[in-house]
């Protein structure tokens, strides 16, 4: 049995959260998951993603529909469950939306984290894995990006919220040596669980590349819009470090293992493959493994996007004992399996119609 038995997972019903929950359960942890369904799908019984995670693992998940902005609600969950460690995924996460609604992002991401940290402290829980992002690096000064690369010169509001939280964690761990925190800077998660039962089902228009690509391949959308063809890259399209979501999930278990063995106060690690793949290259691999055709439409760059980034992952390999195992072909194959098995994503909650008579429902 792992030393940290009870893990609270915020944003546990989301894309990365649900895959991480599967990996945690398989590693022998007990999971208490919370989610407010901003970035995830709700059905009549709660979270279809977590219900399927239970099916995959044969284990039970304790779930609460809860919002980190509701402090008494979160406090009550901590009162009820002895939490050994928190994995904090919950955040608004769309770059484009963050540029249009900055106050929404600052309120949700920063206040949510402040509430969580205060409640953790009041319950003597000082162990955390934080879901950060490679966006904290801004436009890279050098490639590949190591953890010592400068942060803070960020091109979008979403990335700034992650950066501000990392600064908050630095100050917190410096002021109080009880804290033991690992911040994982993700590169670009794609793919799905190999069972095809869980995967990415976007709830907003602002979405990641892979779900849009699959919707075009299924004929549900006419073309894939490629933002920018004039980047300083071999084919002119943006380059990213795409990582399989199951490799990302295993990185969290590796982080938990390190936290349980060592008091490190605060440490950051890159989670990526260490290889850059352009948008055009990703589309070509996707078409090859799925035998589907994806028409492209080229438009101008988006505000806040950068040209190229990929990780140096040697620190995670050395200190977490973690490295990626899955290829870009497997990312595309697994996502296509999820998408073809679930062309409309998860079953959605149906809205009940109320009949109003004389002002009474």
TrEMBL record:
Its cofactor is NAD(+). Its EC number is 5.1.3.2. It comes from the Eukaryota. It is an enzyme of class 5 (isomerase). Pathway: Carbohydrate metabolism; galactose metabolism. It catalyses: UDP-alpha-D-glucose = UDP-alpha-D-galactose; UDP-N-acetyl-alpha-D-glucosamine = UDP-N-acetyl-alpha-D-galactosamine. GO terms for biological process: galactose catabolic process via UDP-galactose, Leloir pathway. Residues 8-334 form the NAD(P)-binding domain. Keywords: Carbohydrate metabolism, Galactose metabolism, Isomerase, NAD. One of its GO terms (cellular component) is cytosol. One of its GO terms (molecular function) is UDP-glucose 4-epimerase activity. Pfam families: GDP_Man_Dehyd. Belongs to the NAD(P)-dependent epimerase/dehydratase family. Catalyzes two distinct but analogous reactions: the reversible epimerization of UDP-glucose to UDP-galactose and the reversible epimerization of UDP-N-acetylglucosamine to UDP-N-acetylgalactosamine. The reaction with UDP-Gal plays a critical role in the Leloir pathway of galactose catabolism in which galactose is converted to the glycolytic intermediate glucose 6-phosphate. It contributes to the catabolism of dietary galactose and enables the endogenous biosynthesis of both UDP-Gal and UDP-GalNAc when exogenous sources are limited. Homodimer. This is UDP-glucose 4-epimerase. It comes from Bombyx mandarina. The gene is LOC114239489.
């Amino acid at each position: 049995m792992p030393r940290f038995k009870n893990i609270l997972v915020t944003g546990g019903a989301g894309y990365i959260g649900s895959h991480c929950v599967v990996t945690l359960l398989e590693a022998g942890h007990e999971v208490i998951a919370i989610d407010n369904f901003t970035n995830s799908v709700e059905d009549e019984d709660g979270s279809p993603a977590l219900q399927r995670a239970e099916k995959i693992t044969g284990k039970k998940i304790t779930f609460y529909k809860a919002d980190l902005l509701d402090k008494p609600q979160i406090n009550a969950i901590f009162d009820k469950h002895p939490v050994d460690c928190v994995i904090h995924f919950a955040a608004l996460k769309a770059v484009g939306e963050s540029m249009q609604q900055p106050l929404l992002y600052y309120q949700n991401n920063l206040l949510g984290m402040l509430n969580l940290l205060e409640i953790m402290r009041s319950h003597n829980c000082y162990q955390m894995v934080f879901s950060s992002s490679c966006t904290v690096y801004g436009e890279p000064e050098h490639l590949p990006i190591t953890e010592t690369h400068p942060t803070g010169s960020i091109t979008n509001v979403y990335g700034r919220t992650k950066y501000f939280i990392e600064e908050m964690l630095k100050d917190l761990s410096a002021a109080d040596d009880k804290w033991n925190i690992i911040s994982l800077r993700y590169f670009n998660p794609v793919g799905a669980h190999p069972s095809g039962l869980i995967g990415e089902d976007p709830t907003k228009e602002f979405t990641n590349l892979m779900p849009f690509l699959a919707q075009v391949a299924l004929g549900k959308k006419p073309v894939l819009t490629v933002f920018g063809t004039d980047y300083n890259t071999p084919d002119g399209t943006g380059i990213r470090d795409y990582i399989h979501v199951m490799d990302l999930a295993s990185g969290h278990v590796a982080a938990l293992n390190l936290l349980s063995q060592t008091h490190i106060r605060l440490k950051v690690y890159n989670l990526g493959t260490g290889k850059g793949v352009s948008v055009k290259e990703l589309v070509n691999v996707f078409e090859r493994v799925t035998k589907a055709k994806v028409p492209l439409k080229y438009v101008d760059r988006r505000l806040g996007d950068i040209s190229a980034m990929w990780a140096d992952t040697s620190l995670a390999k050395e200190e977490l004992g973690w490295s990626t195992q899955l290829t870009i072909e497997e990312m595309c194959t697994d996502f296509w399996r999820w998408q073809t098995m679930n062309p409309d994503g998860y079953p959605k909650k149906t809205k009940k119609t109320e009949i109003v008579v004389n002002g009474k429902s």
